[in-house]
Amino acid sequence: MVVEKSSNDGVSWSPLEFFSRNCSRINGMFENEWSAKFGNSLWKRPNCSEDTASWDAISTGRDLTVHLADKIRAMKGWSLAQTCKTLFNGNASDSNDPEPAIKFFLANKIRIRLLRPGFKNQKTSWQSLHYGISNINFSGSDELNNRFS
């Protein structure tokens, strides 16, 4: 499954986070690859989470979360206050990232795609095609009215 955003009314889409049982096998990345040890140049790269991708995630009450704020803080090494300031004002001290980061997060459409993996044999296909979503909640800011929800 992937959560994607569009800033141009759905003409193009950018992935924000992948959810998989095996991130390295299915998506070619490692879980939570955005940790500080990988440097701060990859903060716009989509994350991959394995913690909510199992068959019992709903029955055990686990929530699926897109980790955008945590991702930026870990990669940049910022405090919460510094993260908020830089998101809206930009980071003039970083020549690679002079514009406000909030531009990356502005979206007028968000979608969830349930991805069907390619199978080498039919024997395993029945195990991977079951999805269950009970609730979808988004929190964020309405830029026009400056409301948070």
UniProtKB/TrEMBL annotation:
Pfam family, one: Laminin_N
Keywords: Disulfide bond, Laminin EGF-like domain
Domain Laminin N-terminal: 1-141
Superkingdom, taxonomy of origin: Eukaryota
Protein's recorded name: Laminin N-terminal domain-containing protein
Species the sequence originates in: Oikopleura dioica
Source lineage: Eukaryota, Metazoa, Chordata, Tunicata, Appendicularia
